[in-house]
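User: Predict the structure for this protein chain, please.
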Amino acid sequence: METRRGVEYYDRKLKQWKWYARILRWLQVILALTAIISSVLASSKAVTDNSILSVVAAASVAIFTGLSLTPVANRHRAAWRMLNCAILKHRESGEQDIGTVREAYSKAEEIIGDYEPTP
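Assistant: Here is the predicted structure, written as structure tokens:
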């Protein structure tokens, strides 16, 4: 039988995955907005030297698509949901054994998987 201390480890993992998902989402938003704004400015001729804006737009799109941020963020959010649900059920049941939480963590880790950027 495991004690409450075991669940605290999984609580830390929850916080970590939630943080990762948020950071990845914000990175997506920043890169997308950078690509859109710099593309619009470069094509509108509002700026005299638009070569820098063109490079920024191209780099933003390349990083956004090349890093495959959307699926990575989605997998972290799905893993967080699975583990969070298991922890809540464990706490509501009042059981000491955290076997179901451990199983959910293992499945959640499989959901996250390895990072594979788009070639």
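Helices lie at 4-44, 51-66, 69-93, 99-112.
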